[in-house]
Amino acid sequence: MKRDNNPPKRSSCACPTMNIPELSFTEFAAKYCERQLYTPLELKARLESQRNVYKPVGWFMLECTMLDSSHLGELTILPYGGTAKFQEVPLTPISLRGLASDMSIVTAILKADALA
Predict the structure, then answer these.
(1) Can you give the residue ranges of every domain in the chain?
(2) pLDDT, tens digit (0-9, with 9 covering 90-100), for 17-69
(3) DSSP string, 63-87
């Protein structure tokens, strides 16, 4: 049997098997601000600043899911598209620090046009 060594093509964040919710800014901010030290107005100002620099398609929210990590439950928001490092929403767990102890998964998406 011939083995296919080509990895499967990555699909966009609209992948039906991922079920990553695309939220309004109000929902996105509520989810983030309930656990982080930001108000919705501060978050909006930070995202608007990133929008001016990176011209992203949107942002994705990561949550650390490692049970044995001091980062468990920590939320991080990163831009994607435009000139940002991530051109697509990651469909697999990622580590922002390069450590196995802070593997995070995407829990929500905010499109740039929803930032209004």
Answers:
(1) 25-114
(2) 468 999 999 999 999 999 988 999 999 999 999 999 999 999 999 999 888 77
(3) EE--TT-TTTT-EEEEEESTTSSBS
